[in-house]
Design brief:
The complex is a heterodimer of chains A (496) and B (303).
Chain A: H1 2-20, E1 122-129, H2 141-144, H3 146-153, E2 161-168, H4 173-187, E3 191-194, H5 200-211, E4 215-217, E5 231-233, H6 238-252, E6 257-263, H7 269-281, E7 285-292, H8 300-308, E8 313-317, H9 320-332, E9 338-341, H10 345-351, E10 361-364, H11 382-395, H12 406-426, H13 432-439, E11 443-444, E12 453-454, E13 470-477, E14 483-492
Parallel strand pairs in A: 1-2, 1-3, 3-4, 4-5, 6-7, 6-8, 8-9, 9-10
Antiparallel strand pairs in A: 10-13, 11-12, 13-14
Chain B: H1 10-38, H2 45-62, H3 67-90, H4 98-120, E1 136-138, E2 141-143, H5 145-167, H6 169-179, H7 181-186, H8 191-217, H9 226-239, H10 244-264, H11 273-288, H12 295-302
Antiparallel strand pairs in B: 1-2
Helix pairs in contact in B: 1-5, 1-6, 1-8, 1-9, 1-10, 2-3, 2-4, 2-8, 3-8, 5-6, 5-8, 6-8, 9-10, 9-11, 10-11
Classes of the chains: A alpha/beta (496), B mainly alpha (303).
């Protein structure tokens, strides 16, 4: 009897695990700890107009109706190594040409709610991010706050210090909502920013709507944003990212048989839908498509299925650790197609030499980072790279920016910098409504390492989505001997 | 959902299922042993395996010692933690219900996770395989030397453990301790030693499973064996929970069924399809054979 009871209890526990995901099963997601709301990509300039941008080419796209560039604050100011001044020179002082609200008037908050988290002395921002279970990149809160340490040491934003608090979302949608709620209850922030997580962000987006909290998040699906009033992103959508992967296939691997291994998730699926729609329109042969559960661990069946179908280009729509495992296991099966992945150095540094045979390739909403390297496309945002490395050497020398988490820290840094520039442009009288008004009609390149933010495009929901450009990265042998990713296309909207 | 996938390359499906199932069986063996000896489910079983991988990594990769030294260190650490947990926690809960002790193992799981994150971090690491090389190709699938070794270890462990439990006084003491601890003590069986042995050996089996699984996966990090544990406990329940042979067979069954589900739902965005399918399988087994798949043969034997 006891045995039967225990067996039944175990079965119930398993049902719970199956339905909710067992503890720790979301380990190590792509970029989890990133808190970069706008962390966007990158550098150089957009590449949209002519696709022939050269290092050093300026891209001052302040065509936006509302926002004038704040003096010396980047906005595409030259991207060469000695390019324009992208350092936060406006900190602590009112920008000479601060943003002025355009036609859009926000009344989302009134009274005290409009100034929550912002006082004469301080701006409080709270981030939900994967600090434990998902933290495959081995970065902690202290590593992520370097940018604000620097800004605060220079006097903050219009005299206000910026305090960023973190709540752990464990890279899980349920805990992400709990983390957002804890952000609100414990820190009463000006805004909540959402780290990487296709599954986490949609959940928090819903929560933000009902709780009327300003939410600035990382990439997520278009689906579900329509009608939302409180959520904004500075990055391209999941769908757009999938389409860009398809453009890589069409432009670089024409005529090759393609296979897809993807996360079985409704929040990830739109990226695949975007990929397939564009790929099939261009006659790409998608030979096999397989779903994998979170942290599946053993991908032998998927690898064998791809090989059985003679797949030459394998599009891996999984998180960084899962991708790493997949590639390692494929190599053990003597299978080396062209892998298309989310390009994190975690993957290349873990896979090692095999990441170069053939070189892994990927699409990212951030720009590559390789410690100390300023060659090639890195030259476009060398000033930001210099500043990033200087700040970490000064404020956080223990952070291993040359290691597996270096590119994630740079990604985070880019996002913090973009957010800082926005706060500066929001002005000394910044409120939540004013910040939202700033974004509406905003089009500007905030820094050499951040792609143009553009909230001006017509179309439903596009006033909440500012990211349109992506970067294409490829594995290479870095000067320090590591195998890392570097950009081969920087901040481009299309390859075809 | 595509049922025709079952008939595409069934020999590959079976082979992959068995290869995975062997590891599930190894982990399930430890779960079944602890349950058999103490009537407790050790929810930290998987994480004990992960902890042992960190020990192996530290010794063999970080310090550069030979693989077998790392493996021995891993086994010793796992066994030590198992015995230590029994000494410090289980023994002090002698009057507590078995459910309470089971909850304590969840505490151990959390503690191990926290320890790993604190001292090793979350970045993925790798431990070399015990035997190098790509292995042999069967049905267009390379079976690595480590996977072949896993077969041998699983068979050896199951047969050896089964024999030891049935044919030695100490083994019989293990069985008796779970049935009636007081009576066992009264007849002179060293109960403390018996339970310490069970917890220690259970942890060692977790380490063996992890060491043999990691080279196939390629990396490990805190929480590495969580999903492995879930599948292993399904295997143990299917096999009858306290039946060692059942755990082995249950592991293989789980591996093959999981593979069939994976193939059938390969094209569908059905989150955790295989886990859901395995849970349904467990419920069906419990409904039809509450004592696991070996219950029928036991019943017949008893009759």
């Amino acid at each position: 009897m006891t045995g039967r009871l225990v067996a039944a209890a175990a079965a119930l526990a398993l049902i719970a695990a199956a339905c909710t995901g067992a503890p720790g099963t979301d380990l190590a997601a792509t970029g989890n700890t990133g808190t970069t709301a706008t962390s966007g990509a990158t550098t150089g300039d957009d590449g949209v107009e002519d696709g022939t941008d050269q290092p050093g080419e300026a891209d001052t796209e302040t065509t936006g109706s509302t926002v004038a560039t704040s003096s010396g604050s980047s906005s595409g100011s030259g991207s060469g190594r000695s390019g324009g001044d992208s350092t936060p020179t406006t900190t602590g002082a009112t920008p000479t040409t601060s943003a002025s609200p355009g036609a859009f008037t926000s009344t989302l908050w009134s009274g005290r709610d409009d100034t929550r988290g912002i006082t004469d002395d301080e701006i409080v921002i709270c981030a939900h991010a994967a600090l434990t279970y998902g933290a495959a990149f081995n970065t902690g809160e202290e590593d992520l706050n370097v940018y604000w340490t620097e800004i605060n040491s220079q006097g903050g934003v219009h005299g206000r210090s910026v305090r960023v608090e973190y709540e752990n979302d464990n890279y899980s949608p349920d805990t992400a909502v709990q983390a957002a709620s804890a952000c609100k209850d414990n820190h009463d922030p000006f805004m909540i920013i959402g780290g990487i997580g296709f599954d986490q962000i949609p959940a928090v987006r819903e929560w933000a709507e009902t709780n009327e909290v300003l939410y600035f998040h990382h990439t997520a699906t278009v689906n579900g944003t329509q009608g939302k009033q409180y959520s904004y992103t500075g990055l391209p959508t999941t769908e757009k990212t999938g389409e860009m992967f398809a453009e890589v296939v069409i432009s670089k691997f024409a005529g090759k048989r393609v296979g897809i291994i993807k996360r079985a998730s409704e929040n990830w699926e739109p990226g695949i839908v975007g990929f397939k729609a564009l790929a099939e329109r261009h006659g790409v042969d998608i030979a096999v498509e397989r779903s994998a559960q979170v942290n599946k661990g053993n991908y032998l069946d998927d690898i064998v299925a791809l090989r059985n179908a003679d797949v030459e280009v394998a599009f891996i729509w999984l998180n960084a650790l899962e991708t790493t495992e997949f590639i390692l296991q494929a190599k053990n099966q003597a299978y080396s197609p062209q892998f298309l992945v989310f390009p994190f150095n975690l993957i290349t540094q873990t896979v090692g030499e095999d990441a170069l045979d053939p070189p892994l390739m990927g699409v990212a909403m951030f720009n590559g980072y390789s410690f100390g390297d300023r060659s090639g496309e890195f030259a476009r945002y060398a000033d930001d790279l210099d500043e990033f490395e200087r700040q970490y050497a000064e404020h956080r020398p223990s952070a291993d920016i040359g290691g597996v988490g270096g590119d994630l820290l740079f990604l985070n840094w880019q996002g913090q910098k973009a957010l800082h520039k926005l706060l500066v442009q929001c002005g000394p009288d910044c409120t939540r409504n004013r910040f939202v008004e700033l974004l509406h009609g905003f089009k500007q390149k905030l820094s050499t390492s951040v792609c143009t933010l553009d909230y001006t495009r017509p179309g439903p929901g596009n006033d909440k989505r500012g990211g349109w450009d992506l970067s294409v990265l490829q594995a290479y042998r870095a000067p320090d001997g590591n195998v890392n990713f570097h950009n081969i296309h920087t901040c481009v909207e299309h390859l075809i | 959902m595509d049922l025709t996938a079952l008939f595409d390359r069934p020999e590959q499906m079976l082979l992959i299922g068995v290869l995975n199932g062997v590891i599930y069986g190894l982990m399930a063996l430890g779960i079944a042993l602890v349950y058999r000896g103490t009537r407790t489910i050790n929810f930290a079983q998987g994480e004990l395996g992960t902890l042992s991988l960190f020990a192996a990594w530290w010794l063999s990769t970080d310090l550069g010692l030979p693989w077998f030294i790392g493996a021995l260190g891993a086994l010793a650490l796992a066994g030590g933690v198992g015995v230590g947990f029994e000494r410090v926690v289980v023994r002090s809960m002698v009057q507590a219900s078995r459910s309470t002790v089971t909850v304590a193992t969840i505490g151990l799981l959390t503690l191990l996770l926290a320890f790993e994150l604190k001292f090793f971090g979350a970045s993925p690491r790798h431990v070399d395989a015990p035997i190098g090389g790509r292995g042999i190709e069967i049905f267009d699938v390379f079976v690595s030397p480590t996977q072949m070794l896993s077969f041998v270890v699983l068979a050896g462990s199951a047969i050896g453990l089964g024999a030891a439990l049935r044919r030695t006084d100490f083994g019989l003491g293990v069985l008796a301790a779970a049935q009636d601890p007081d009576a066992t003590r009264l007849v002179g069986v060293p109960l403390a030693r018996v339970t310490a042995f069970v917890w220690g050996l259970g942890a060692v089996l977790a380490a063996v499973a992890a060491l043999l699984n990691e080279p196939t996966i390629g990396t490990f990090a805190p929480g590495f064996a969580t999903l492995l544990f879930v599948k292993a406990i399904i295997a143990a329940v299917v096999g009858g929970l306290s039946n060692l042979n059942g755990a082995v067979v249950g592991g293989i069954v789980v591996g093959v069924v999981e593979q069939a589900i994976n193939d059938v739902f390969a094209g569908a965005a059905f989150q955790n399809a295989s886990l859901v399918g395995l849970v349904v399988m467990v419920l069906l087994v419990l409904l039809v054979l509450p004592g696991g798949i070996f219950a029928a043969s036991r019943t017949r034997a008893a009759a």
